[in-house]
Amino acid sequence: MARETGPDFIEALARGLDVVRSFRPGRRVSTLSEIAADTGLARPTVRRILLTLTELGYVRAVERGYTLTPRVLELGMAYVNSLDMWDVARPHMERLVALTGESTSMAQLDGSDIVYVARVAVPKIVTLAVSIGTRFPAAATSMGKVLLAALDPAQLEKVLAEPGRSGINARWQPERPALEAALREVRAKGWALADQDLALGIRSIAAGVRNGDGTVVAALNVTVHAAETSVDKLTGEYLPLLLHAAADISHDWSLLDTAPMVVRG
Predict the structure, then answer these.
(1) How far is CA 263 from CA 68, 71, 77, 78, 161, in A?
(2) Which residues have C-beta within 8 Å of that of residue 133, sequence separation ≥ 6?
(3) Rounded-to-integer distance, Cα 42 and Cα 70, Å
(4) Terminus-to-terminus CA distance in the chain, angstroms?
């Protein structure tokens, strides 16, 4: 098949990958003729490639043709195993920003604070600057409320007993009964709102993101300027998009958790 290539292009490697991709669902065994027809390569070329792939352990000769071996999974798993959870989350966050036009972040708990671990921002002036590693009091943020609400009573007690290290004096500093009521509401709804609880002008919604065990391990938010975006727009228009993104990230994280590690002997 014709390709637009540069001077460093390795045609033999490209042809080998063409042969691997020619094995498709519904046809477990492929003949040399079928592969040649699918790839547009000459039969002698296909034969040499198949012999090479067989020698490397990626293809096995069987009755009436050839079939892939499980070792082909290494090719895809090398990519999967090179990712971390934030790499997986980022495309979903970028899509959320594209749909809302607002910044989105992810955070995890560290004691009674949240720590920002991922962020896709749009250039807007806000009261508090945020970057990876920024800490805020958990109770005064939408992401913090989500993460606190996911804890069991013993964990919550331990977390709230730790002094904050953010250096931020939040506007909303609830007594324990008010915080408990807020967390019960979050558990019931499945998401949290912070309406200028942290600082004037900052309004956000957040939802939990789960790992393969179903445990909330991070929170995802959408942050807006209170003067530009009402609570109704935030919860009516942006919330469904946020929940969809959080579910998509959770799904991909569950796949990442269950992906087998490639171990070479």
Answers:
(1) 19, 11, 10, 10, 42
(2) 115, 116
(3) 26
(4) 37
The identity of residue 166, as a single letter, is S
CB-CB contact of 175 with 189 (8 Å): no
- At 141, list the tokens: 């943020």
Q: For residue 63, count CB atoms less than 10 angstroms from its CB and return exposed for 0-12, middle for 13-18, buried for 19 or more.
A: exposed
What's the number of CA atoms in the CB half-sphere (13 Å) around residue 93? 25
Whether 148 and 183 have beta carbons less than 8 Å apart is answered as yes
Q: Is 101 left (phi over 0), alpha (psi -120 to 50) or beta?
A: left
- Put simply, whether the predicted model's pTM sits higher than 0.85 gets the answer no
DSSP secondary structure letter of residue 140: G
pLDDT in tens, the chain (265 residues): 556 567 888 889 999 999 998 987 778 899 999 999 999 999 999 999 999 999 999 999 998 899 998 888 777 656 555 557 888 899 999 999 999 999 999 999 999 999 999 999 998 766 677 888 899 999 999 999 999 999 999 999 999 999 898 889 999 999 999 999 999 999 999 999 999 999 999 999 999 999 988 999 999 999 999 999 999 999 999 999 999 999 999 999 888 776 555 444 4
Tally DSSP H helices, then E strands, for the chain.
Answer: 10, 8
